[in-house]
Amino acid sequence: MEGNQTWITDITLLGFQVGSALEILLCGLFSVFYTLTLLGNGIIFGIICLDHKLHTPMYFFLSHLAVIDMSYASNNVPKMLANLMNKKRTISFVSCIMQTFLYLTFAATECLILVVMSYDRYVAICHPLQYTVIMSWRVCTILALTSWSCGFALSLVHAILLLRLPFCGPQDVNHLFCEILSVLKLACADTWVNQVVIFATCVFVLVGPLSLILVSYMHIVGAILKIQTKEGRIKALSTCSSHLCVVGLFFGIAMVVYMVPDSNQREEQEKMLSLFHSLFNPMLNPLIYSLRNAQVKGALHRALQRKRPMGRVYGLCL
Length: 318
What we know:
disordered N terminus
């Protein structure tokens, strides 16, 4: 590791290796998706903050999910868009490590927040009379802070293990952004410790949480089947269906990327999956929750109704 080795200061993100016309088209398309991601999650977050009827544990955690999705996309997509418009697709080594750290932080935190949301639904359906006691605001705050703290701590471990490696070339990362598995390929030393820690983290934030979510929903399905009225069963299912859609998309893609054995043939597939994970999934989450959730649609309608009279008054004043 000494003497004649050159340490890299810049990294080239190869991204999609397509023609310039297609790059411009992709840049425009991804810009629209990114705008929709920020707009959709921003509206969800704003409605939850402003509408007192949504000041419940379920929407408290949904507001955290909206913040994570906006941060998640903003960490990767702007640089991706810039690279599509530039021939020089470099990123400094420090910025690359920071991008990796933030990507892992938001991803791990989202996993844990989704588990907490499933626990909230379990308590609401299986223990409705004790719901306000079990899911008190103090408990909700602790659960949210724990999720963020664990996500930050796990990512910090990965960042420290990355920085202890010697990176002396090559400088090309065959990915859209600085994803940890792709960055590890630049190291000129054995990365088995990093690989073991990544696998352990996947077990902790993917396999473990998904198992807890499945257990929660097994109890939820059992409780729903005991509900006497058809309307009651439909209402109970509607509160869980949105969360299940998000869980299926997020955990399914993450497990394919990080827990399926790697191969050179899978590199292009992993780019597409990572793109879906960091851009399409955050864009779809607010659509899933708003289109399938009557309370969110009702809150949005009330917000628009409040603005209309104000607009009329303002017009009369003019």
